[in-house]
């Protein structure tokens, strides 16, 4: 058995973010951009470097509609560039590519030189454009792969297939539009979340058989080199060897399922405890949903990466919800309660600990509920409905709330009816974090308030020893947190919640739901009265909302 510790994940679809490398003029990233542009010109196409260096570049949704060739090459370029950024902070033991990310993974591992890796992507895109039927699509289901396969079998269309197994309860199905729509309707009847993906083709399905054959014929002249790094393939289902026909693997990949969940679990069994996502496509969240006791990290964009932003982030950082092990989707074992004192330090003279984040609170809640209810901790997910999914009726919920109050030292705050009304642990964690944060961070709280009186000594100690305020998070960081928050609450795969998706037209979030989500956003970011501003509910996309939050946070906090 191979022993590994650090795994680099290279994204496929979903790996493109406009302006991902804005402000990063390092030679290693510049080489990737220049090479991609040069290869694009060989195919009579425009370059893609502007897509990754300009923040006003077209969105992924725009490129799906107008230029899927550029989108595919930009995804490859983003993954390879992200790998080079990640390598500044970490050394990988194994490299894994998700879907089309396998081309990038094989490239960074030395099987193909950089230009040939880009050529493989271009040949693949041309084959798809020339030979893929136009009536195909993909849908993500909140179901295990085995149950999703039953739905596929019920539809009885040989062109329909389970395309990707991402996490224990996230599977992607691909095939003809009509068949995909039937799967979505069946899932809805079962009260299972089904989300149509913004994918240009029905990847990993029999519909791509002709395109796969054309792709194989087009790349016969591309030379394969010995691997310089260890690569695990979620399509092949194991570690690759130098005698593996890697071009044949990439051809087969177009019509073969991606078993990402199985890959993560095997690597975890081999010792992997750090997963570094070379980009921001949501793979970190999938890992946290799939295995316990892991540290997930993502490369930052632009100059932030050079300052070490790809290193693991502490629980109190602005990206804690999205990237730290203590995540809204985490399955890692929570730290002991004594190590996460929720309000006051044990010794008043010691430096004050930062307010506990909702992600940390959620981890402790999951451990507490699992211990009391006798469930495996991985069953107690943040988005599981306490009554419908976990069978916790109103009486048991009130009993658990007493334990929660004692554990977190909520005191009279727990009398607030909002606590018992929260439908999921993620919602409860956000409320606890909000209440605790207000107790710690509001030195001017009224002395007449009972909770404020009880917490006054701790608040004074915190105020006296608090470190200087950290810089406000960037719009990119805020957007990452928003995507995780909306995905958790709405039950969508995080990769579906893109910054440029229209909240109403693309995600089906009507005005009522938008107002409800705004309440959660206000609590999460501590916006307070700022959120009353009508501009917040008027923002059409999460990217717009992130920009607005970033602009008001310094005054709000």
Automatic annotation (TrEMBL):
Sequence segments annotated as region (Disordered): 294-314
Carrier domain mapped to chain residues: 356-436, 473-553
Keywords: Acyltransferase, Antibiotic biosynthesis, Phosphopantetheine, Phosphoprotein, Transferase
Name of this protein: Acyltransferase domain-containing protein
Extent of Low complexity compositional bias: 297-314
One function term, GO molecular function aspect: acyltransferase activity
Keyword Plastid tagged: no
Domain of life of the source: Bacteria
């Amino acid at each position: 058995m191979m022993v590994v510790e650090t795994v680099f994940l290279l994204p496929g679809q979903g790996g493109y973010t406009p302006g991902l490398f804005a402000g990063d003029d390092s030679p290693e990233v510049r080489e990737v951009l220049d090479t991609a542009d040069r290869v694009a010109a060989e195919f009579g196409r425009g370059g893609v470097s502007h897509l990754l260096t300009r923040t006003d570049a077209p969105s992924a949704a725009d490129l799906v509609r107008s230029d899927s060739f550029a989108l595919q090459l930009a995804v490859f370029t983003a993954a390879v560039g992200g790998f080079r950024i990640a390598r500044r902070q970490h050394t990988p033991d194994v490299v894994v590519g998700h879907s089309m990310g396998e081309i990038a993974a094989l490239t960074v591992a030395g099987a193909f030189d950089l230009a040939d890796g880009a050529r493989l992507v271009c040949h693949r895109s041309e084959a798809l454009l020339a030979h893929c039927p136009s009536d195909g699509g993909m849908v993500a289901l909140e179901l295990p792969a085995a149950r999703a396969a039953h739905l596929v079998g019920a539809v009885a269309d040989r062109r329909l297939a389970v395309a990707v197994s991402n996490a224990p309860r996230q599977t992607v199905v691909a095939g003809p539009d009509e068949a995909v729509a039937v799967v979505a309707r069946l899932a809805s009847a079962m009260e299972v979340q089904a989300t149509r993906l913004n994918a240009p083709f029905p990847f990993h399905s029999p519909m791509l058989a002709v395109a796969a054959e054309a792709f194989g014929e087009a790349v016969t002249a591309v030379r394969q080199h010995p691997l310089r790094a260890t690569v695990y393939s979620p399509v092949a289902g194991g570690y690759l060897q130098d005698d593996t026909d890697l071009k044949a693997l990439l051809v087969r990949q177009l019509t073969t399922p991606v078993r990402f969940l199985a890959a993560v679990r095997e690597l975890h069994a081999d010792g992997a405890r750090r997963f570094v996502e070379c980009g921001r496509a949501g793979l970190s969240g999938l890992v946290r949903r799939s295995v316990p006791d892991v540290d997930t990290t993502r490369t930052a964009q632009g100059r932030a990466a050079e300052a070490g932003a790809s290193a693991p982030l502490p629980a109190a950082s602005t990206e804690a919800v999205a990237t730290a092990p203590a995540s809204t989707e985490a399955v890692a074992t929570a730290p002991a309660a004594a190590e996460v004192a929720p309000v006051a330090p044990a010794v008043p003279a010691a430096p004050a600990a930062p307010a506990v984040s909702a992600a940390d609170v959620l981890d402790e809640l999951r451990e507490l509920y699992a211990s009391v209810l006798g469930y495996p901790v991985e069953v107690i997910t943040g988005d599981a409905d306490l009554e419908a999914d976990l069978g916790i009726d109103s009486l048991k919920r009130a009993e658990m709330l007493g334990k929660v109050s004692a554990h977190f030292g909520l005191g009279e705050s727990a009398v607030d009816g909002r606590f018992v009304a929260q439908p999921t642990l993620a919602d409860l964690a956000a409320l606890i974090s909000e209440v605790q944060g207000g107790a710690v961070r509001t030195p001017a709280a009224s002395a007449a308030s009972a909770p404020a009186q009880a917490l006054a000594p701790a608040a004074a100690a915190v105020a006296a020893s608090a470190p200087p305020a950290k810089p406000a998070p960037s719009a990119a960081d805020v957007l990452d947190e928003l995507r995780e928050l909306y995905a958790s609450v709405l039950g969508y795969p995080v990769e579906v919640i893109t910054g440029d998706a229209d909240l109403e037209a693309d995600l089906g979030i009507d005005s009522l739901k938008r107002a409800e989500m705004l309440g959660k956003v206000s609590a999460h970011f501590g916006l307070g009265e700022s959120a009353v501003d009508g501009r917040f509910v008027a923002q059409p996309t999460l990217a717009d909302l992130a920009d607005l939050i970033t602009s008001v946070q310094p005054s709000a906090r």
